[in-house]
Design brief:
Blueprint (H helix, E strand, L loop, with lengths): L5 E8 L4 H19 L4 E9 L2 E9 L4 H7 L2 H12 L2 E2 L2 E2 L4 E8 L2 H8 L12 E8 L8 H18 L6 E14 L2 E14 L6 H15 L10 E4 L15 E2 L4 H4 L20 H18 L5 E8 L8 E5 L8 H11 L4 H8 L33 H7 L1
Parallel strand pairs: 3-6, 9-10
Antiparallel strand pairs: 1-8, 2-3, 2-11, 4-5, 7-12, 8-9, 12-13
């Protein structure tokens, strides 16, 4: 039997964190290519440091002659991301940062495994294992520690960008230690928040006075008590932030991107990868299936694992674990999810409508636990499979 009384901690990082700057640029490049061609192939990596952004990887269009035209837009895309995030530091400024574009054409050896049967069942873009998870502990069916860590930073970004809190900078991290009683989240034992600030005269106490009202309005009522420990900018001043303070790299915040450590992660990063890469698309499908299992009332918690081999269309395995909370057996869940959704790479893309420029918005504050959007963004957060799952049992 799983533990019922414990404390669990998750962290989030803001859009201005060096790694998230890189995720944002990589996904912006992906969106630009998908906007040109829904079947574009993109595997884009970004590195950022003081006064420098380096973009590499491979891209492919059906008309490769168009690649040259798009290469001239990459620098513009990167600068637009840095500007929107809010960096205007002396050593990391959207106008003056040096952008190096090293993107090149996709490897033919990789393409052949995916394209060999494009008129029938295309193969997965790589081997790997992917996990999805859902739990009833929050309305979004996400683990509470990561969901509220994200929510705090999203709120601080809002008030920074709308001018209400001009002293805050783009780079920030939050961490919540959530107390569980009888398996349910009931409070926060400690909160850690470090945020960049633009006024060097501000102390840690000054920063706490700025951020505390927004944190209190974000967390559920009663979760913060006199017993809650606060650590706001515990190292003191935090003026130099972003890639000038610490180098950034695409794909280095995979636990922040998913479940905050409350559920397994297959290991593959998401940002900068087009949806033929099952690292991304099958992880979205696994979350979609797990969320619908929970939404259907089949379990209070559910983990789904999928596995793939490069060039092979169908998943090698489907695994489900309801963690002892299931109304039906794990085997019955596995059978049901395999019936209600085509889990080939093309089937996933078509079901979730993933061949759209919807990825830049996923680059910060989590890929999961967000609201589905009218243009297809966060389609994997829908719960429209719940009835089909119940009928398949």
């Amino acid at each position: 039997m799983s533990r019922q009384n414990y404390t669990f901690t998750s962290e989030s990082v803001s859009e201005g964190h060096p790694d998230k700057v890189c995720d944002r640029i990589s996904d912006a490049v992906l969106d630009a290519f998908l906007n040109e061609e829904p079947e574009a192939r993109v595997a884009c990596e970004t590195f950022a440091t003081t006064n420098r952004v380096v973009i590499g990887g491979e891209v492919g269009l059906s008309d490769q002659d168009k690649l040259h035209d798009y290469m001239g837009r990459i620098e513009e895309i990167a600068r637009a991301c840095v500007k929107d995030i809010g960096y205007e530091q002396d050593k990391f400024h959207h106008e003056t940062v040096e952008v190096t574009n090293l993107l090149h054409e996709q490897s033919a050896h990789i393409a052949q495994g995916v394209d060999a049967a494009a008129d029938k069942d295309e193969g997965a873009g790589d081997q790997g294992i992917m996990f999805g998870y859902a739990t009833t502990e929050t309305p979004a069916l996400m683990p509470a520690p990561i969901q509220y860590s994200h929510a705090i930073l999203r709120r601080l970004a809002e008030v920074r960008k709308n001018g209400n809190e001009p002293a805050l900078g783009p780079d920030a991290k939050s961490q919540l230690s959530v107390v569980y009683r009888d398996g349910k989240p009931v409070g926060v034992s400690s909160i850690v928040l470090s945020t960049q600030h633009l006024d060097e005269a501000l102390s840690s106490a000054d920063i706490r006075a700025i951020v505390e009202p927004y944190i209190r309005e974000t967390l559920p009522e009663g979760w913060l008590t006199n017993e809650t420990e606060w650590h706001v900018n515990p190292t003191g001043k935090f003026v130099i932030g972003g890639p000038d303070g610490d180098a950034g790299l695409t794909g280095r915040k995979i636990i922040v991107d998913t479940y905050g450590g409350a559920a397994p992660h297959g290991g593959g990063a998401f940002s900068g990868k087009d949806p033929t890469k099952v690292d991304r698309s099958a992880a979205y499908a696994a979350r979609y299936l797990a969320k619908n299992v929970v939404a259907a009332g089949m379990a209070e918690r559910c983990t789904i694992q999928l596995s793939y081999a490069i060039g092979v269309s169908k998943p090698l395995s489907i695994y489900a674990d309801a963690h002892g909370t299931g109304e039906i057996s794990n085997a019955a869940i596995e059978n049901a999810v395999g019936q209600v959704m085509d889990l080939t790479p093309r089937g996933i893309r078509e079901h979730l409508q993933l061949n759209k420029p919807i990825y830049q918005r996923t680059a910060a504050y989590g890929h999961f636990g967000r609201d589905p959007e009218a243009d297809g963004g966060f389609s994997w957060e829908r719960t429209d499979l719940a009835d089909a799952l119940k009928a398949a049992v």
